[in-house]
Design brief:
274 residues; alpha/beta; D-Maltodextrin-Binding Protein, domain 2; Alpha-Beta Plaits; 6-stranded mixed sheet; 15 strands; elongated
């Protein structure tokens, strides 16, 4: 299976894709919009996208792209994020003067930099890309913060592992396919959807009451601006199914209170890695 990801090979998206499909061939894309275009236009069978990090929050762009493209979520994965200091093989820790990585990764390793004041943290466009750069340049004065997968892919050496501040660092990934090609799962116990309500008092309360009346557990809700309509919002929600039939009945009831309802996926909830 060919899977599109955003970023360089060796990224956490790469790691997630291999957990979804160990024999997958990757189709790296520079931009998230290119990931969705590759899926819609057919060069790939599926795509893997990060949707939320337990510390940094949502990937807002991916919610917008899920809403505006004819794709759907097939599976969910909760990937434990382990940051590693990676360098050219043979480099000593005391040689490292500069450390490159994505700004989010750098921010999640503040204590490491506090304990190594001689290292300068430098933002880079991609975690795996930072390792790719230093290995290609054979730069022994620089390191990169990335996954073990990046070290394996580019031939780097892990100097320090598990340097993230918080071990409860997880990123939630979706495996998505074209809407008509999603494989149903009889054990699906979770639904993601998007909806909008009319701009009048009580409409959001009425919509949320549907989840309570159906006995479903609303696990997440977030609002995003509607593009081109200032001060209008679309709500993204996840809920757990009380029974297989409750998904359809909740959607039907919600439609009575909303101006738009779109199911983004029906899938089995991911489990935390240890």
């Amino acid at each position: 299976m060919q899977i599109a990801i955003q970023g360089e090979p060796g990224s956490f998206s790469h790691e997630a894709a291999l957990k979804f499909a160990p024999q997958a061939t990757l189709f790296p894309c520079a931009l998230s919009s290119e990931v969705f275009s590759a899926l819609i236009e057919g060069p790939v069978e599926a795509a893997v996208i990060p949707i939320e990090n337990s510390l940094a929050g949502s990937v807002a762009e991916h919610y917008d792209l899920l809403l505006t493209n004819e794709v759907a979520i097939e599976r969910e994965l909760l990937l434990r994020i382990r940051h590693n200091l990676i360098a050219v093989p043979g480099t000593r820790l005391d040689q490292i003067q500069r450390v490159y990585s994505h700004p989010v990764a750098l921010a999640q390793c503040r204590r490491f930099f506090e304990s190594h004041p001689g290292m300068e943290a430098i933002p880079y466009y991609d975690t795996a890309g930072s390792v790719k750069q230093l290995v290609e340049l054979r730069d022994r004065s620089s390191g990169g913060i990335a996954s073990v997968q990046a070290a394996l892919h580019y031939g780097g050496e892990v100097l320090e592992s598990g340097i993230e501040d918080n071990p409860e660092n997880y990123t939630r990934f979706f495996l998505i396919r074209r809407r008509g090609e999603v494989r149903s799962d009889a054990a699906a116990d979770k639904v993601s959807l998007a909806f909008t309500v009319e701009n009048r008092p009580g409409t959001l309360v009425e919509a949320l009451q549907v989840f309570a009346s159906q006995g479903t557990n609303l696990t997440r809700i977030e609002s995003r601006p509607v593009h081109g309509q200032p001060w209008h919002y679309v709500f993204y929600a996840d809920y757990q199914l009380s029974s297989p039939d409750s998904a359809d009945s909740a959607l039907e009831s919600l439609a009575q209170h909303c101006s738009m309802v779109k199911e983004l996926g029906r899938y089995r909830a991911g489990q935390l890695e240890t």
